[in-house]
Amino acid sequence: MTELSLPASTAALGEVQLIASDIDGTILSYTHTQTGSVSARTVEAFQAAQTAGIRVVLVTGRPVRWLRHISATLGEPGTVIASNGAVIYDLATDRVVHETALEAAALFTVKDIISEIDPQASFAAETLEHLHMEEPFIAGSLFFEADRRRAAGVTEEELRLGPLDETLEREALTHAAQTPGSDVTSAHVTDRVVKLLCKTEAMAPDEFLGRVQAEVGDLLTVTHSAPGISLLELSAQGVNKASGLARYAASHQIDRDGVIAFGDMPNDIEMLRWAGTSWAVGSAHPLARSAANYTAASCDDDGVAQVIEQLLAGEL
Prior knowledge:
The protein is α/β, with parallel strands linked by helices. It is built from 12 helices and 14 strands. The strands form 2 sheets. Strands 5-4-3-2-1-12-13-14 form an 8-stranded mixed beta sheet. It has a 6-stranded mixed beta sheet with strand order 8-7-6-9-11-10. A hairpin with a 7-residue loop joins strand 10 and strand 11. The longest helix is centred in the middle third of the chain and has 14 residues, at about 105-115. It is globular and about 60 Å long. The relative contact order is 0.19.
């Protein structure tokens, strides 16, 4: 693929009803991840698409708490697809539209298997209310210092620090699973973990992904989205950006042929394959580039904005 190749078969403006875009590394440079500063050109392109009557939805691995500012920058705060498709959330009304949580048994089984693959692996877990983090996981991350946590929009009230077996109350849940009539209900925080994360320094990102997928891929969906960091993201089986986007599109009576998707990392692969037309930015991971129909310019060169501009100008 060449950058900004424009085949005649690309979806025409009249056929496009929905633009679905990843954020980090796609429309937001990794150098601006913490600030959330999207370029003016990208903002203008997305707003022009909405003015033209095209829906825009952000589809990201980020949790909901990190999305309000970016969504508002691109237009009126609306629906976002967060946590790699596990959560569909209406920012305008602060309402969960759909949520798919991990089952406790699968979560802890997978955690044990990963710990066997790498005994030094550390873990974190996202819920809609809290971010659970083990001490080794937090070291060296943007959460290590309190001021950086605040800058990222994470409050002290949201953090639950300590081994996941303790903060997610593994013993209580394991006992509850074997006890009919247990008082542990779906309101329990572990029942609402939407994303499990694990990190290692023992192997490269793609090697870590391959090892873990081979061992637990039949239990949870495994992917990664952080370039250069051996950090995996795990969702409920069958949950990914494509499943979340398909659910959202169907709720608006939009067929996949009316969807254009943009992405850059392995967690975008299923979405890029599902959409009627898909573009990987030129700076994308090789697996994302091979999953997409076409390749745009890099994120730092506003590749997504360039495609949208040409779409609106009738040049695609």
